[in-house]
């Protein structure tokens, strides 16, 4: 079996999500799959599409990103520094209660598997506290922000 048979394709993701395989949808997922650890703003996706010669208006891109979030293909995170939303591929690790580090310089995500058990225990406590108040929590996202080693090295060299 070829190596590409194991790698997800835009068509696979769209089919799983029950979405049409439009040129824009395929191109957006192609961009995200090319750098799966990165999260993108709506504007960055729009610029990347333009650079690839794919024309799609802002509303179409926004709706597509939201549909992919609803279909659980993408995750959506608030970028408080830029006051915007970021979109990235949803992974198996993101389904678990796991801490995630996001570099504020390059916007790549790094899973912290060694923190999984303590994070799960904390998430369970939070969800139990919500439940005792009559609320139904569905998941806990823990994201630590800072600068990754690669970006620190780059800034030290400059």
Briefly summarize what is shown.
The protein is an alpha+beta fold and 158 residues long. It contains 7 helices and 6 strands, in the order ααβααββαββαβα.
Explain how this protein is built:
By secondary structure, this protein is α+β, with helices and mostly antiparallel strands. It folds into 2 domains: 1-90, Winged helix-like DNA-binding domain superfamily/Winged helix DNA-binding domain (Arc Repressor Mutant, subunit A, Orthogonal Bundle), CATH 1.10.10.10; 92-158, Ferric-uptake regulator, C-terminal dimerisarion domain (Dna Ligase, domain 1, 2-Layer Sandwich), CATH 3.30.1490.190. The chain contains 7 helices and 6 strands, in the order ααβααββαββαβα. The strands form 2 sheets. Strands 1-3-2 form a 3-stranded antiparallel sheet. A 3-stranded mixed sheet has the order 5-4-6, with no helix packed on it. Strand 2 (74-79) and strand 3 form a beta hairpin. The longest helix is centred in the C-terminal third of the chain and has 17 residues, at 116-132. Residues 1-6 have low confidence and may be disordered.
């Amino acid at each position: 079996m070829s190596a590409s048979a194991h790698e997800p394709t835009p068509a696979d993701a769209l089919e799983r999500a029950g979405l049409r395989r439009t040129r824009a949808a395929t191109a957006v997922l192609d961009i995200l799959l090319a750098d799966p650890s990165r999260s993108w703003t709506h504007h960055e996706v729009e610029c990347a599409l333009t650079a690839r010669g794919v024309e799609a208006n802002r509303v179409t891109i926004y709706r597509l990103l939201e549909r992919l979030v609803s279909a659980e293909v993408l995750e959506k995170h608030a970028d408080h520094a830029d006051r915007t939303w970021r979109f990235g591929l949803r992974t198996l690790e993101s389904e678990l209660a796991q801490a995630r580090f996001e570099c504020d310089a390059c916007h790549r995500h790094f899973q912290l598997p060694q923190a999984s058990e303590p994070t799960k225990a904390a998430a369970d406590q939070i969800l139990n506290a919500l439940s005792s108040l009559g609320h139904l929590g569905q998941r806990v996202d823990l994201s630590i922000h800072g600068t990754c080693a690669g970006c620190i090295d780059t800034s030290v060299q400059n």
